[in-house]
Amino acid sequence: MKDWKEVLLDRSLPSPIPPPPYSNLEQSFGFLDRENEIKEFLDLINKAVIEHRGFLIFLLGDQGKGKTTFLKYIKENYFYPSKDNSDKLFVSMHFPQELSELDFSFIFTKYIGEIVNSGLIDKLRDRVVYELNSTLGLNLEYTDKNQVIDFLTKVKNLVITLPKNLLKNMEIITFVISSYIYYPEIQSFIDYGEQPNNQFLGLLKHGPNEVSVSKIYLFSKFLRDFMGIKHTVFSIDDFDILERNENVYRTLYKLLMSFRNANLVEEFSIVLSGSVSFYEEFIQSLSQNERQRIENWGYPIFFESLDTKDVLDLIKRSFSNFWMNYNVIPPDNPYGVFSSDSISFLYTYTNKDIRETLRKLYDLINEMRSLGNIVDYSDVKKIISKFKVDKVGLKDVELNYFKNLLIEKVKLFKSSDFINEKLKDAFNKLIKYYESRSISIRAEKEVNINGSFADVLLTVNKINEGMRYEIIFEVKIKDSEVSEEEISSRINLIKGNERRYLYWISRSKLHELDYTDGNDKKRILRDTPLTETEIAYLSYLVHIPEIFGWDKFEDNDLELILKQSGINMDLILNLQAPKEDKPSNIYALFEEILDRFLKEEKIYVLKKTVLREVRGKGFKDFSDEYLMGVLSEVAHQKNLRITDSQIRFDIKKI
């Protein structure tokens, strides 16, 4: 049997992960984990048939959640003509680039297109011809153009003898029969909206909106009588293609209301699919009465991301099939060169976009094959090194990962020495950067001061001002409160020395002390615990050499990461100014802003609105990701609901 590494690197073999595009996960992986959503959707449509009243269904989820695949799967497995015994028809369409193009003429065109291109027109034609032959006592066929025209002529001459159900639908009957010979003209109408100049295709001259509404309604009744089609679903995919402004929201609302008011709702349901944020902004743009109308008729189905366990199972099966197909003894790791942790992280990193996750895994395997070397991607940090674009800010998934990584590492090593080492290196990487500002710095770790050791000692020499002082950084990343003895021993390092300061980098609260010397307390630059966000950035700082190397960072970016880690370099380098702990103040500022919106009884506020206000208050240096992280943390503490783009005050999170 072959070695698994040799087979994995063989460029002549398919990849264990199929190549993109992943337009149909069912086809590529035999996988569709939407049983609950399928049941919810079909229950609504069945209820619409029974009650003779359609629904407005919003299919909501971010890109990559499988909405388009879901709609395709539903159509192919539960609707006529794919399922012969179904009494429901499914018409697929996409939002046009301009919402003004989405009118009833557009919908009528797509309706006809579905009837023709699905093959339903052929079955309908057979039924109609059979009915006419039986009713009129004819025995006509339609195998060529002359026979069709002859048949239509005889029907026209005998029209007075037709029963009412046929007589009132002569325009539709003529179109259905003549579709056999005028297919090119009909297809031009479907593809380009070209209305044919043909006496037998008068149905396609739909004219204004109200005419199209009437023809849609009549055709649905005709399908009910001849084919037993009791309900039709109009599915309009991807409303995110539209601009987000008041005019678009008004136009969409008016279109939906005109559909409902035209009584089409008796025979049809509408499915609109797109992102949650567009739906929320659309609903918020409506008046209370308008919103009530939409909510009484509409029904949102939220597409949550696939469970991580399902994604892991999908990828495990892909590798398992690969080893089996090529007679390989599989490695102990069922995910090949990946791990459950690295795949789970990547999936979350792509905002739980299964297609983007698969694409990245496929690209990594192809890259290995091109290099001819196996690369171990089981470590999450390796995934970050490949795909992180913004090296200054951290996404939510990165914040959680790095925060937990630092805490677990401290527990494992029972020491913060590795933090001290990297903190020292980070300071010293900025020596030349600060020299340009006539400031000399030097960092050392584990410095013996009168028999006690400072975790990190930063010496600052402000050359132009003739000022020299030292900052002692004490690093305590542990669960329990920092004890009175630990605090006292560190205060002793600065006691009576006006040029020595103490800076606590602590995860936990410091035991409260009564300071006998007020000057000692003034020279403690920070004694508040690090926030969750600051812990994550400190961990990121510590792991930069392993992930990227210091040289991948500009000096000002490294300084910013230090600030976001809770180490306020502005304060440290400007000690003659009043003490200002910006990282603490920024949390208070976010609280103040959110409290103000709460008092104003706002339903929601856009995150970018809050960030714009914060930057206007002097916090211009911090990255968007850092500010978003702090905003989410403060909102979480206040028990507010957080969406992709908003902080919501109307619904508290449970």
Provide structural commentary.
- By secondary structure, the chain is of the alpha/beta class.
- The chain folds into four domains: 35-46 and 53-302, no CATH class; 307-387, no CATH class; 400-572, Trna Endonuclease, Chain: A, domain 1 (3-Layer(aba) Sandwich), CATH 3.40.1350; 582-652, Orthogonal Bundle (Arc Repressor Mutant, subunit A), CATH 1.10.10.
- Helix content is 52%, strand content 13%.
- It is built from 29 helices and 13 strands.
- Strands 2-3-4-1-5 form a five-stranded parallel sheet, with helices on both faces. Strands 6-7-8-9-10 form a five-stranded mixed sheet. Strands 11-13-12 form a three-stranded antiparallel sheet.
- A hairpin with a 2-residue loop joins strand 6 and strand 7.
- The protein is elongated and about 115 Å long.
- The model is unreliable at 577-584 (pLDDT under 50).
Question: Which features characterize this protein?
Answer:
654 residues; alpha/beta; Trna Endonuclease, Chain: A, domain 1; 4 domains; 13 strands; elongated
Major sheet strand order: 2-3-4-1-5
> Uncertain runs with pLDDT below 50, 5 residues or more?
577-584
Distance between the termini: 54 Å
Q: What about the largest sheet?
A: 5 strands, parallel
Helix/sheet category:
alpha/beta
Number of helices: 29
Structurally, the number of domains stands at 4
Helix fraction, binned, reads 40-55%
Give the mean pLDDT.
Answer: 87
Q: What spatial form do the alpha-carbon principal axes imply?
A: elongated
Beta-strand percent range: 5-15%
InterPro entries: P-loop_NTPase
Briefly say what this structure is.
The protein is an alpha/beta fold and 654 residues long. Helices cover 52% and strands 13% of the residues.
